[in-house]
Design goal:
8 strands, mainly beta
Length: 77
């Protein structure tokens, strides 16, 4: 499943039950995204700027489990 943006506003969090690609931005208001080994959250935005890919993460607002980030050749993150 591919989503352009995902905005999380759920104090109980979100359990990822399918493979999900976030094409643009993951925005945290409240809650944690829980992922599994075979179902990592994939951030496919190729930007090297963290603020282009995620927003408002911190205490109580993060990814708990595997996550991957698309990086272009010789790029960084």
């Amino acid at each position: 499943m591919t989503l352009n943006n995902l905005e999380l506003n759920n104090i109980k969090g979100l359990k990822n039950s399918v493979l999900v690609d976030i094409a643009t931005k993951l925005i945290f208001n409240t809650g944690v995204v829980y992922t599994e080994e075979l179902k990592p959250l994939r951030l496919t935005n190729s930007s090297q700027n963290l603020s282009d890919v995620t927003e408002n993460f911190g205490d109580g607002r993060y990814i708990d489990g595997p996550v991957s980030k698309y990086i272009i050749n010789n790029g960084g993150f």
